[in-house]
Design brief:
2 helices, 0% strand, elongated
């Protein structure tokens, strides 16, 4: 008993699915990085997360430039 195979050459469905998944994944990444809800508190957390990751890796974090002075209100 032999199973008959359809000739799949030229079938655009796998390509369409792959492009759709890639676009949705990239959209999710960009939205979670730059999307709604970004405020000044989030950027502080990013610094703390970076410092924690560097510390766990056993490295020393040396800033490339001094932190900017905060404006006086």
């Amino acid at each position: 008993m032999h199973a008959k195979r359809k000739d799949r050459r030229g079938d655009p469905i796998p390509l369409i699915v792959a492009v759709f998944v890639a676009i949705m994944g990239q959209t999710f990444v960009l939205f979670s990085d730059f999307g709604a809800g970004i405020d000044s508190q989030v950027s502080g957390n990013a610094t703390m997360i970076t410092a924690a990751a560097v510390s766990r890796a056993g490295a020393i974090e040396i800033p490339s430039e001094p932190p900017a002075a905060r404006p006086v209100s």
